[in-house]
Design brief:
Blueprint lengths: L22 H4 L3 H9 L18 H17 L10 H15 L8 E4 L1 H13 L5 E6 L3 H9 L3 E8 L2 E2 L8 E6 L13 H14 L2 E5 L15 H4 L5 E6 L11 E4 L2 H15 L4 H12 L2 H27 L4 E3 L10 E3 L4 H4 L1
Parallel strand pairs: 2-3, 2-5, 5-6, 6-7
Antiparallel strand pairs: 1-8, 3-4, 7-8, 9-10
Helix pairs in contact: 3-10, 4-10, 5-6, 5-9
Length: about 350
């Protein structure tokens, strides 16, 4: 029997030329993100976190069990574009809830909104391209665009939304949240949406429409999405089930013009092949059997009640210090400090 000789112990040395990532990725505050979402708070004022206690967990477990059993019969890979049943269910839901006529072939299933934006940048953005964003706006989108080498151009807001007249003529892509502007909360006016579409056609630019919080509009019927008004194939529509169902699902989708669909499918394939198949199948049934619509209706009423309570509370206790930004949609309220300095807030 051969005996193995122990290798002599060597002291680990730091490499003379350590491997260094690109600076754009070093600048992403991943430690802060981990801390923010790892902690639990007695009074949770984080934005964009839905109340999952009212979610029909028993129904979801039953649907997941069904599709996990079905998955055992087929252990191969699926279509990178997504489960056909889910793509069709989303197309029908978008027609009923947003009035958009969508071909399921143009729907791509993603791992949340963030991957949808990542796929878009991969097929459209070159290093040095100018990307316009709302200011203030959604920080993860800004960071993603900067990480791929884009020149991020913050565009100011007014009461109607993004100031279209401030857009540079050489902008390649405009990222907007017209249903519920993050973080201020206004909905982009119809006139401003039409102006943005006209500008994009003249500038030969792409509009990315993130339907942030679009399921939770209180009261009036929502304004048509930019995608529904687009006759020139310039709008990419992005949606997610993180707020309307469960954040942990990590399921989103994007709807592309026909000219971009094949490239988006290819980018999804090269990124991670496809989103978890059983989750997609279960979500398709959740939508088609009416569970999703019932859950959204119930939570819309609940969030409206909370919205009213928070606005009243701010008006009662902080009337001379804060002013609530007008909003009739979404999971958060934005209040502007009128008499506070940064040191007062901290």
């Amino acid at each position: 029997m051969k005996q193995r000789r122990a290798l002599p112990a060597t002291e680990a040395k730091a490499p003379e030329r350590p491997l260094n990532p690109k600076q754009e990725w070093v600048d992403v505050p991943i430690t802060l993100v981990r801390t923010l979402f790892a902690n639990r708070f007695e009074f949770d004022f984080r934005t964009g976190i839905p109340d999952v206690s009212a979610f029909p967990h028993a129904t979801w477990r039953r649907l997941m069990s069904r599709h996990l059993q079905l998955s055992k019969a087929s252990t191969g890979y699926g279509d990178p574009a997504g489960h056909p049943a889910l793509r069709a269910a989303i197309a029908r839901h978008i027609w009923l809830s947003r009035g958009m006529d969508v071909d399921p072939e143009g729907v791509t299933i993603t791992n949340g909104t963030q991957q949808a934006l990542d796929l878009i940048t991969k097929i459209l953005i070159e290093r040095g391209d100018r990307v316009a964003v709302e200011d203030p706006g959604y920080p993860p989108a800004w960071r993603l665009f900067r990480a791929v080498g884009a020149r991020v151009e913050p565009i100011p807001l007014d009461a109607e939304g993004l100031t279209v007249s401030a857009l540079p003529s050489d902008t390649r892509l405009v990222y907007v949240t017209p249903s519920h502007q993050f973080p201020v909360g206004m909905a982009m006016s119809l006139e401003r949406r039409l102006a943005l579409l006209e500008w994009a056609q003249e500038a030969n630019a792409v509009i990315v429409e993130d339907d942030y919080d679009g399921e939770f509009r209180f009261g009036d019927r929502p304004i048509e999405p930019l995608r529904a008004m687009d006759s020139d194939g310039r709008v990419i529509y992005v949606g997610s089930f993180s707020k309307s169902a469960l954040p942990s699902l990590r399921v989103g989708f994007l709807i592309t013009p026909p000219s971009l669909t094949a490239a988006i499918h290819a980018a999804k394939y090269l990124s991670d092949w496809h989103t978890m198949w059983a989750v997609q199948g279960a979500l398709a049934d959740f939508i088609e059997e009416g569970w999703f619509a019932r859950h959204v209706r119930r939570m819309r009423k609940e969030y409206e009640t909370r919205h009213i309570a928070v606005v009243k509370g701010i008006d009662t206790h902080f009337r001379n210090l804060m002013e609530v930004a007008p909003s009739a949609v979404g999971l958060h309220v934005c209040a502007l400090a009128t008499q506070l300095s940064p040191s007062d807030v901290h």
